[in-house]
Amino acid sequence: MKKYGILSISIFILLIYAFTGDVYAQSIEYLRGKVIEITSEDLDLDFGGGMSGDVQYFKVEVQSGELKGQILELENTSFGDEVYDLWFEVGDRVFIEVYETDQGFSGHVVDYQRDIYLSILLVVFLVIIILIGKIKGIKAIISLGVTIILILKILIPMILRGYSPFYMSLLTAFASTLITYIIIGGFTSKTIGALAGTLVGLFLAASISFMISGLAHIKGISGDEINMLLYLPTEINLDLTGLFLGGVIIGALGAVMDVSISISSSISEIKKNSPMISFKGLFLSGMEVGKDIMGTMTNTLILAYTGASLPLLLIINAYDFSFTRMINMEFIAIEFVRAMAGSIGLIAAIPATALTTAYLMTRKEMKKDV
Description:
Layout: H1 2-26, E1 30-48, E2 51-62, E3 71-78, E4 93-101, E5 104-112, H2 115-160, H3 165-185, H4 189-215, H5 224-229, H6 240-273, H7 279-308, H8 310-318, H9 323-327, H10 330-369
């Protein structure tokens, strides 16, 4: 048990590094601070040109860097934009960008500090997994850490260096699936069966999304984040269509893995408790389990993509677009292809997993019969 404790601590450190390592390395100019006093607030000021807004004057105590302990007097302007405006209260923890002026140091608030609360949430998540799952929970944490590191330290950097997002996503998905299954179940017939089902499902999801994106002229350019990628400070021309296809693969990976390992584990348990069961019996049992899982997991995928697109759906409904106009909008088409391709891949994983696992579990008996 001791070695698993060491592993869990190690993977926790890797998770923190994966989430925050690059952020802190690239954000040295941003200092932590705490709002200690609201000096004054001027509301409904006229800025001319029909613009009005509110101005807030406050003091911030710097809590990191060479200026730690110093008090800065800052101001903040709000124009009534709920998305981008900030409005502070005493006690708020913030990030500030500091610069030197003739009168000393000044700066402005960049954003709230959120990493503290996210770290607390992460610790709670890890503790619950370990308490409920014990050794298997620790293995789940290790596999999660490996997946996060593969994405943040390999997939994303390789894409930014100009490698194909589509093929890099496929390789990342394969590596993540293989490592996760080996960590959780070891190199067994159950693992090989689940791996085969996952790969079949992902390959089908990738093939369908690739084909439909070409036929439907889906470029993958949708949303502010994608548009911002067009202006990255790099000479690399990102393949946005490949990025969309890679997103389909990564998005479907979790659900397909879940279905495959559930079916494979069920078949393994059935074989353990009924050693004389035939290949056909195991296969049909796996299919029945898969059918029960299929409905909920397909809903999970579709609801996840719908939830991500909910603001866009509200806008479309508010402006009363027709169904024909709506379904032909690229960002709707993108989410539709993601949901459908992922769901088809998930469904295809069911017979592939059941067939492979049932064969591996009964191959010795089948050879004896021959």
